[in-house]
Amino acid sequence: MPKIISEDVISKIIDDYNSGASGKDISKKYHVDFVKLKKKLVANNKIIPRESELTYEQLLKISNRYRNGEQLKNLAKEYNIGITKLTTRLKSNSLYFKKYTFIDDDELNTYVKEYNNGYGLTPKEISIKYSRGDSSIINALRKAGIYIEQTSRWTDEEIEILKKYYPLEHVDDIIKRLPRHANKQLIFAKASSLNLPAYNTWLDEEIMILKDKYSKVNIEELYNDFNCRHSKDSIRTKAQRLNLSSNPFWSEKEIEIVRNNYSIQSMDDLLLLLPNKTENAIRGMAKKLSIKSKNYIKEKYTEQQKQFIIDNWKTLNDTNIAKILDKSPAGIKAQREKLGLYKTNRDCSKYESISKFFRGHISEWKNKSMKSCNYQCILTGSKDFAIHHLYGFNYIVKEVFEILDDKHFLKSENIEDYTKDELDYMLLIFKTPLYNFWVKMFLINIAFARP
Description:
Helix content is 57%, strand content 1%. By secondary structure, it is mostly helical. The protein folds into seven domains: 7-48; 52-92; 105-143; 156-193; 204-241, no CATH class; 299-343; 354-449, no CATH class. A two-stranded antiparallel sheet has the order 1-2. Helix 8 crosses helix 9, helix 21 packs across helix 22 and helix 24 crosses helix 27 (433-444). The relative contact order is 0.04. Residues 437-451 have low confidence and may be disordered.
Protein backbone atom coordinates (compact mmCIF):
# COMPACT_ATOMS: atom_id res chain seq x y z
CA MET A 1 0.00 0.00 0.00
CA PRO A 2 1.48 3.38 -0.99
CA LYS A 3 2.39 5.63 1.91
CA ILE A 4 0.03 8.58 2.49
CA ILE A 5 1.90 11.84 3.05
CA SER A 6 0.12 14.70 4.74
CA GLU A 7 0.03 18.16 3.22
CA ASP A 8 1.99 19.47 6.19
CA VAL A 9 4.85 17.04 5.53
CA ILE A 10 4.77 17.78 1.79
CA SER A 11 5.05 21.48 2.58
CA LYS A 12 8.14 20.81 4.71
CA ILE A 13 9.66 18.63 1.98
CA ILE A 14 9.16 21.41 -0.57
CA ASP A 15 10.79 23.95 1.78
CA ASP A 16 13.78 21.64 2.34
CA TYR A 17 14.16 20.99 -1.40
CA ASN A 18 14.01 24.70 -2.22
CA SER A 19 16.59 25.34 0.53
CA GLY A 20 19.06 23.04 -1.21
CA ALA A 21 18.56 19.71 0.59
CA SER A 22 19.48 16.69 -1.52
CA GLY A 23 16.93 14.07 -2.53
CA LYS A 24 18.82 11.47 -0.52
CA ASP A 25 18.67 13.59 2.64
CA ILE A 26 14.94 14.26 2.14
CA SER A 27 14.21 10.55 1.65
CA LYS A 28 16.10 9.71 4.83
CA LYS A 29 14.56 12.52 6.89
CA TYR A 30 10.91 11.92 5.93
CA HIS A 31 11.08 8.20 5.11
CA VAL A 32 9.70 8.69 1.61
CA ASP A 33 10.67 7.70 -1.92
CA PHE A 34 11.62 11.19 -3.06
CA VAL A 35 12.37 10.10 -6.64
CA LYS A 36 8.71 9.18 -7.21
CA LEU A 37 7.41 12.04 -5.08
CA LYS A 38 9.54 14.53 -6.98
CA LYS A 39 7.91 13.55 -10.30
CA LYS A 40 4.46 14.23 -8.83
CA LEU A 41 5.54 17.56 -7.34
CA VAL A 42 7.08 18.65 -10.64
CA ALA A 43 3.94 17.55 -12.56
CA ASN A 44 1.78 19.62 -10.18
CA ASN A 45 4.12 22.63 -10.54
CA LYS A 46 4.92 22.58 -6.81
CA ILE A 47 8.68 22.45 -7.33
CA ILE A 48 11.01 23.29 -10.19
CA PRO A 49 13.67 20.67 -10.96
CA ARG A 50 17.03 22.14 -10.09
CA GLU A 51 18.66 20.93 -13.27
CA SER A 52 16.14 22.89 -15.37
CA GLU A 53 17.35 26.05 -13.61
CA LEU A 54 20.73 25.81 -15.34
CA THR A 55 20.76 28.30 -18.15
CA TYR A 56 22.85 27.97 -21.28
CA GLU A 57 25.24 30.57 -19.87
CA GLN A 58 25.70 28.46 -16.73
CA LEU A 59 26.26 25.32 -18.77
CA LEU A 60 28.80 27.19 -20.90
CA LYS A 61 30.62 28.32 -17.76
CA ILE A 62 30.64 24.74 -16.44
CA SER A 63 31.99 23.49 -19.76
CA ASN A 64 34.82 26.04 -19.75
CA ARG A 65 35.79 25.20 -16.17
CA TYR A 66 35.72 21.50 -17.06
CA ARG A 67 37.92 22.22 -20.08
CA ASN A 68 40.38 24.13 -17.83
CA GLY A 69 40.95 21.15 -15.54
CA GLU A 70 38.17 21.03 -12.95
CA GLN A 71 36.48 17.69 -12.36
CA LEU A 72 32.94 17.28 -13.58
CA LYS A 73 31.77 15.55 -10.39
CA ASN A 74 32.86 18.56 -8.31
CA LEU A 75 31.07 20.94 -10.67
CA ALA A 76 27.90 18.80 -10.49
CA LYS A 77 28.01 18.96 -6.71
CA GLU A 78 28.50 22.72 -6.77
CA TYR A 79 25.42 23.22 -8.96
CA ASN A 80 23.26 20.70 -7.06
CA ILE A 81 22.77 18.40 -10.01
CA GLY A 82 23.60 14.76 -10.59
CA ILE A 83 26.68 14.14 -12.70
CA THR A 84 24.71 11.98 -15.17
CA LYS A 85 22.09 14.68 -15.69
CA LEU A 86 24.77 17.36 -16.00
CA THR A 87 26.57 15.30 -18.63
CA THR A 88 23.28 14.87 -20.51
CA ARG A 89 22.55 18.61 -20.41
CA LEU A 90 26.06 19.44 -21.65
CA LYS A 91 25.77 16.90 -24.49
CA SER A 92 22.33 18.20 -25.52
CA ASN A 93 23.81 21.69 -25.81
CA SER A 94 26.97 20.46 -27.61
CA LEU A 95 29.11 21.57 -24.66
CA TYR A 96 30.42 18.19 -23.57
CA PHE A 97 33.70 16.72 -24.74
CA LYS A 98 36.06 13.96 -23.72
CA LYS A 99 39.10 15.62 -22.30
CA TYR A 100 41.03 12.52 -21.36
CA THR A 101 44.63 12.64 -22.48
CA PHE A 102 47.08 9.83 -21.99
CA ILE A 103 49.59 10.21 -19.17
CA ASP A 104 53.03 10.76 -20.63
CA ASP A 105 56.31 9.74 -19.00
CA ASP A 106 56.97 13.15 -17.42
CA GLU A 107 53.49 13.25 -15.89
CA LEU A 108 53.85 9.67 -14.63
CA ASN A 109 57.21 10.46 -13.03
CA THR A 110 55.54 13.36 -11.20
CA TYR A 111 52.80 11.09 -9.83
CA VAL A 112 55.33 8.42 -8.85
CA LYS A 113 57.34 11.02 -6.97
CA GLU A 114 54.23 12.40 -5.20
CA TYR A 115 53.05 8.88 -4.29
CA ASN A 116 56.47 7.94 -2.87
CA ASN A 117 55.74 4.21 -2.61
CA GLY A 118 52.70 4.83 -0.44
CA TYR A 119 54.38 7.25 1.98
CA GLY A 120 53.48 10.45 0.12
CA LEU A 121 50.17 11.75 -1.23
CA THR A 122 47.26 9.38 -1.72
CA PRO A 123 45.84 8.89 -5.27
CA LYS A 124 42.87 11.00 -4.17
CA GLU A 125 45.14 13.86 -3.11
CA ILE A 126 47.17 13.59 -6.33
CA SER A 127 43.99 13.68 -8.42
CA ILE A 128 42.84 16.88 -6.73
CA LYS A 129 46.26 18.51 -7.01
CA TYR A 130 46.67 17.76 -10.72
CA SER A 131 42.98 17.73 -11.80
CA ARG A 132 43.02 14.09 -12.84
CA GLY A 133 40.46 11.42 -12.03
CA ASP A 134 41.20 9.07 -9.13
CA SER A 135 41.00 6.02 -11.38
CA SER A 136 43.47 7.54 -13.86
CA ILE A 137 46.04 8.09 -11.11
CA ILE A 138 45.55 4.60 -9.67
CA ASN A 139 45.84 2.94 -13.10
CA ALA A 140 49.03 4.89 -13.85
CA LEU A 141 50.60 3.92 -10.53
CA ARG A 142 49.45 0.33 -10.99
CA LYS A 143 51.09 0.14 -14.42
CA ALA A 144 54.26 1.55 -12.88
CA GLY A 145 54.15 -1.37 -10.44
CA ILE A 146 54.19 0.73 -7.29
CA TYR A 147 50.51 1.05 -6.35
CA ILE A 148 49.68 -0.59 -3.01
CA GLU A 149 46.34 -2.31 -3.40
CA GLN A 150 43.93 -1.35 -0.63
CA THR A 151 42.54 -4.87 -0.47
CA SER A 152 45.93 -6.50 0.10
CA ARG A 153 45.71 -9.59 2.26
CA TRP A 154 47.47 -9.49 5.58
CA THR A 155 50.42 -11.83 5.91
CA ASP A 156 51.16 -13.61 9.18
CA GLU A 157 54.25 -11.46 9.57
CA GLU A 158 52.23 -8.24 9.16
CA ILE A 159 49.65 -9.41 11.71
CA GLU A 160 52.40 -10.12 14.22
CA ILE A 161 53.84 -6.62 13.63
CA LEU A 162 50.40 -5.12 14.20
CA LYS A 163 49.87 -7.12 17.40
CA LYS A 164 53.26 -6.08 18.73
CA TYR A 165 53.24 -2.36 17.93
CA TYR A 166 49.57 -1.28 17.72
CA PRO A 167 49.20 -0.94 21.52
CA LEU A 168 52.54 0.89 21.75
CA GLU A 169 52.70 3.32 18.81
CA HIS A 170 50.64 5.94 17.05
CA VAL A 171 48.89 4.74 13.88
CA ASP A 172 51.17 6.94 11.72
CA ASP A 173 54.17 5.00 13.01
CA ILE A 174 52.35 1.70 12.43
CA ILE A 175 51.79 2.64 8.78
CA LYS A 176 55.53 3.14 8.36
CA ARG A 177 56.02 -0.45 9.51
CA LEU A 178 53.24 -1.71 7.21
CA PRO A 179 53.59 0.18 3.90
CA ARG A 180 51.30 -2.28 2.09
CA HIS A 181 48.45 -1.10 4.31
CA ALA A 182 48.97 2.65 4.14
CA ASN A 183 45.44 3.54 5.18
CA LYS A 184 44.45 4.42 8.74
CA GLN A 185 40.95 3.01 8.41
CA LEU A 186 42.33 -0.34 7.24
CA ILE A 187 44.71 -0.41 10.19
CA PHE A 188 41.88 0.45 12.63
CA ALA A 189 39.58 -2.18 11.11
CA LYS A 190 42.19 -4.94 11.28
CA ALA A 191 43.18 -4.03 14.85
CA SER A 192 39.52 -4.06 15.86
CA SER A 193 39.00 -7.51 14.34
CA LEU A 194 41.96 -8.73 16.43
CA ASN A 195 40.63 -6.98 19.57
CA LEU A 196 43.87 -5.03 19.98
CA PRO A 197 43.92 -2.11 22.45
CA ALA A 198 44.75 1.20 20.78
CA TYR A 199 47.77 3.28 21.71
CA ASN A 200 47.28 5.35 24.88
CA THR A 201 43.87 3.89 25.72
CA TRP A 202 43.37 2.51 29.20
CA LEU A 203 42.16 -1.06 29.63
CA ASP A 204 39.94 -2.07 32.54
CA GLU A 205 42.64 -4.33 33.97
CA GLU A 206 45.18 -1.49 33.73
CA ILE A 207 42.87 0.83 35.66
CA MET A 208 42.49 -1.85 38.33
CA ILE A 209 46.29 -2.14 38.61
CA LEU A 210 46.59 1.65 38.82
CA LYS A 211 44.00 1.88 41.61
CA ASP A 212 45.66 -0.94 43.51
CA LYS A 213 49.30 0.14 43.19
CA TYR A 214 49.42 3.91 42.68
CA SER A 215 49.84 4.74 46.37
CA LYS A 216 52.20 1.82 47.00
CA VAL A 217 54.86 1.81 44.26
CA ASN A 218 56.78 4.39 42.27
CA ILE A 219 55.93 5.58 38.77
CA GLU A 220 58.84 3.69 37.23
CA GLU A 221 57.46 0.36 38.44
CA LEU A 222 53.96 1.18 37.15
CA TYR A 223 55.46 2.23 33.82
CA ASN A 224 57.01 -1.23 33.51
CA ASP A 225 53.85 -2.97 34.74
CA PHE A 226 51.99 -1.40 31.83
CA ASN A 227 54.65 -2.65 29.36
CA CYS A 228 55.54 0.96 28.54
CA ARG A 229 52.09 1.50 26.95
CA HIS A 230 51.55 4.66 28.98
CA SER A 231 54.02 7.44 29.58
CA LYS A 232 54.78 8.49 33.15
CA ASP A 233 52.92 11.76 32.62
CA SER A 234 49.93 9.78 31.29
CA ILE A 235 49.98 7.59 34.42
CA ARG A 236 49.99 10.65 36.70
CA THR A 237 47.21 12.33 34.71
CA LYS A 238 45.02 9.21 34.76
CA ALA A 239 45.56 8.85 38.51
CA GLN A 240 44.51 12.47 39.07
CA ARG A 241 41.35 11.96 36.98
CA LEU A 242 40.52 8.92 39.08
CA ASN A 243 41.14 11.02 42.23
CA LEU A 244 43.92 8.66 43.29
CA SER A 245 46.50 10.02 45.66
CA SER A 246 50.10 8.99 45.73
CA ASN A 247 51.74 7.91 48.97
CA PRO A 248 50.56 10.62 51.43
CA PHE A 249 53.54 10.14 53.75
CA TRP A 250 56.65 12.21 53.20
CA SER A 251 60.04 10.91 54.19
CA GLU A 252 62.68 13.30 55.52
CA LYS A 253 64.64 12.71 52.32
CA GLU A 254 61.67 13.71 50.14
CA ILE A 255 61.02 16.82 52.22
CA GLU A 256 64.70 17.74 51.90
CA ILE A 257 64.45 17.37 48.11
CA VAL A 258 61.57 19.85 48.05
CA ARG A 259 63.37 22.23 50.39
CA ASN A 260 66.55 22.19 48.28
CA ASN A 261 65.05 22.12 44.78
CA TYR A 262 61.58 23.73 44.67
CA SER A 263 62.95 27.24 44.15
CA ILE A 264 65.51 26.28 41.50
CA GLN A 265 64.01 23.39 39.51
CA SER A 266 61.08 23.18 37.10
CA MET A 267 58.06 21.04 38.02
CA ASP A 268 59.06 18.46 35.38
CA ASP A 269 62.44 18.05 37.06
CA LEU A 270 60.84 17.86 40.50
CA LEU A 271 58.55 15.05 39.33
CA LEU A 272 61.63 13.13 38.23
CA LEU A 273 63.26 13.68 41.61
CA LEU A 274 60.05 12.65 43.40
CA PRO A 275 58.52 9.89 41.22
CA ASN A 276 56.05 8.88 43.96
CA LYS A 277 54.53 12.33 44.29
CA THR A 278 52.02 14.20 42.14
CA GLU A 279 52.39 17.83 41.09
CA ASN A 280 49.68 18.89 43.56
CA ALA A 281 51.40 16.99 46.39
CA ILE A 282 54.71 18.71 45.68
CA ARG A 283 53.07 22.14 45.55
CA GLY A 284 51.27 21.39 48.79
CA MET A 285 54.50 20.45 50.59
CA ALA A 286 56.26 23.54 49.22
CA LYS A 287 53.40 25.69 50.47
CA LYS A 288 53.61 24.02 53.86
CA LEU A 289 57.35 24.78 53.97
CA SER A 290 56.67 28.38 52.76
CA ILE A 291 58.97 27.91 49.77
CA LYS A 292 58.31 29.93 46.62
CA SER A 293 58.53 28.32 43.19
CA LYS A 294 61.20 29.00 40.61
CA ASN A 295 58.67 30.89 38.47
CA TYR A 296 57.51 33.02 41.38
CA ILE A 297 61.05 34.02 42.35
CA LYS A 298 62.38 34.45 38.82
CA GLU A 299 59.56 36.49 37.36
CA LYS A 300 59.55 40.17 38.26
CA TYR A 301 56.67 42.42 37.26
CA THR A 302 56.75 46.08 36.37
CA GLU A 303 53.96 48.40 37.47
CA GLN A 304 52.68 48.44 33.87
CA GLN A 305 52.52 44.62 33.80
CA LYS A 306 50.71 44.52 37.14
CA GLN A 307 48.21 47.08 35.85
CA PHE A 308 47.68 45.00 32.70
CA ILE A 309 46.80 42.00 34.89
CA ILE A 310 44.42 44.14 36.96
CA ASP A 311 42.73 45.48 33.80
CA ASN A 312 42.40 42.14 31.98
CA TRP A 313 42.21 39.26 34.49
CA LYS A 314 38.43 39.04 34.23
CA THR A 315 38.33 38.75 30.42
CA LEU A 316 41.58 36.87 29.69
CA ASN A 317 42.73 33.63 31.24
CA ASP A 318 46.18 33.29 32.81
CA THR A 319 47.60 31.50 29.76
CA ASN A 320 46.64 34.32 27.39
CA ILE A 321 47.97 36.98 29.75
CA ALA A 322 51.19 34.97 30.08
CA LYS A 323 51.66 34.97 26.29
CA ILE A 324 51.10 38.72 26.06
CA LEU A 325 53.47 39.55 28.93
CA ASP A 326 55.97 36.79 28.05
CA LYS A 327 55.56 35.13 31.45
CA SER A 328 54.61 31.65 32.63
CA PRO A 329 50.91 30.89 33.38
CA ALA A 330 51.90 29.72 36.88
CA GLY A 331 53.73 33.00 37.46
CA ILE A 332 50.72 35.02 36.26
CA LYS A 333 48.43 33.10 38.62
CA ALA A 334 50.77 33.71 41.56
CA GLN A 335 51.06 37.43 40.73
CA ARG A 336 47.30 37.76 40.20
CA GLU A 337 46.53 36.24 43.59
CA LYS A 338 49.26 38.37 45.15
CA LEU A 339 47.28 41.36 43.82
CA GLY A 340 44.17 39.97 45.52
CA LEU A 341 42.49 38.90 42.27
CA TYR A 342 40.86 35.47 42.58
CA LYS A 343 38.95 33.63 39.88
CA THR A 344 35.70 31.81 40.62
CA ASN A 345 35.84 28.15 39.64
CA ARG A 346 33.30 27.85 36.82
CA ASP A 347 33.65 24.09 36.45
CA CYS A 348 30.86 22.85 38.70
CA SER A 349 30.92 19.24 37.54
CA LYS A 350 33.48 18.18 40.14
CA TYR A 351 31.30 19.24 43.08
CA GLU A 352 29.02 16.60 44.55
CA SER A 353 26.74 19.04 46.39
CA ILE A 354 25.98 22.71 46.97
CA SER A 355 27.85 22.61 50.29
CA LYS A 356 31.02 21.37 48.59
CA PHE A 357 30.50 23.97 45.87
CA PHE A 358 30.57 26.72 48.52
CA ARG A 359 33.57 25.16 50.24
CA GLY A 360 35.42 25.17 46.93
CA HIS A 361 35.15 28.96 46.73
CA ILE A 362 36.78 30.19 49.95
CA SER A 363 40.39 30.31 48.71
CA GLU A 364 40.19 34.11 48.42
CA TRP A 365 39.44 34.49 52.13
CA LYS A 366 41.97 31.85 53.13
CA ASN A 367 44.75 33.61 51.22
CA LYS A 368 43.85 37.01 52.66
CA SER A 369 43.80 35.55 56.17
CA MET A 370 47.18 33.87 55.74
CA LYS A 371 48.58 37.15 54.46
CA SER A 372 47.16 38.99 57.47
CA CYS A 373 48.85 36.43 59.75
CA ASN A 374 52.13 36.87 57.86
CA TYR A 375 51.86 33.21 56.81
CA GLN A 376 52.56 31.88 60.31
CA CYS A 377 50.74 30.58 63.37
CA ILE A 378 49.47 33.54 65.42
CA LEU A 379 50.24 31.67 68.67
CA THR A 380 53.66 30.16 68.04
CA GLY A 381 54.96 32.01 64.97
CA SER A 382 55.56 28.62 63.31
CA LYS A 383 55.38 28.36 59.54
CA ASP A 384 53.79 24.94 59.98
CA PHE A 385 50.12 25.80 60.53
CA ALA A 386 46.60 24.73 59.63
CA ILE A 387 43.51 26.83 58.90
CA HIS A 388 40.24 26.33 60.80
CA HIS A 389 36.87 28.08 61.18
CA LEU A 390 35.93 29.09 64.70
CA TYR A 391 32.35 29.52 63.50
CA GLY A 392 31.64 26.16 61.84
CA PHE A 393 31.45 26.19 58.07
CA ASN A 394 28.31 24.03 58.25
CA TYR A 395 26.59 26.78 60.27
CA ILE A 396 27.54 29.33 57.63
CA VAL A 397 26.10 27.11 54.87
CA LYS A 398 22.97 26.50 56.93
CA GLU A 399 22.31 30.25 57.24
CA VAL A 400 22.93 30.72 53.49
CA PHE A 401 20.39 27.96 52.80
CA GLU A 402 17.88 29.72 55.04
CA ILE A 403 18.31 32.96 53.06
CA LEU A 404 17.95 31.11 49.75
CA ASP A 405 14.89 29.24 51.05
CA ASP A 406 13.27 32.51 52.13
CA LYS A 407 13.76 33.73 48.57
CA HIS A 408 12.15 30.48 47.30
CA PHE A 409 15.38 29.78 45.46
CA LEU A 410 16.54 26.59 47.16
CA LYS A 411 15.62 23.46 45.19
CA SER A 412 17.85 20.77 46.68
CA GLU A 413 21.44 20.02 47.71
CA ASN A 414 22.06 18.43 44.29
CA ILE A 415 24.23 20.75 42.19
CA GLU A 416 22.85 19.29 38.95
CA ASP A 417 19.47 20.88 39.73
CA TYR A 418 20.85 24.38 39.14
CA THR A 419 21.97 26.31 36.09
CA LYS A 420 25.28 28.19 36.06
CA ASP A 421 23.46 31.51 36.40
CA GLU A 422 21.65 30.18 39.47
CA LEU A 423 24.91 28.94 40.99
CA ASP A 424 26.49 32.34 40.38
CA TYR A 425 23.59 33.99 42.21
CA MET A 426 23.91 31.55 45.13
CA LEU A 427 27.64 32.24 45.31
CA LEU A 428 26.88 35.96 45.43
CA ILE A 429 24.59 35.38 48.44
CA PHE A 430 27.33 33.29 50.03
CA LYS A 431 29.82 36.15 49.56
CA THR A 432 27.64 38.96 50.95
CA PRO A 433 29.45 41.33 53.34
CA LEU A 434 27.88 39.57 56.35
CA TYR A 435 29.28 36.15 55.48
CA ASN A 436 32.45 37.66 54.12
CA PHE A 437 32.99 39.23 57.56
CA TRP A 438 32.24 35.97 59.36
CA VAL A 439 34.60 33.87 57.32
CA LYS A 440 37.41 36.43 57.32
CA MET A 441 37.17 36.78 61.08
CA PHE A 442 37.45 33.06 61.56
CA LEU A 443 40.29 32.81 59.09
CA ILE A 444 42.27 35.68 60.57
CA ASN A 445 42.18 34.05 64.01
CA ILE A 446 42.49 30.47 62.89
CA ALA A 447 46.13 29.62 62.41
CA PHE A 448 46.63 27.07 65.16
CA ALA A 449 49.87 25.12 65.48
CA ARG A 450 49.55 21.47 64.58
CA PRO A 451 50.20 19.08 67.47
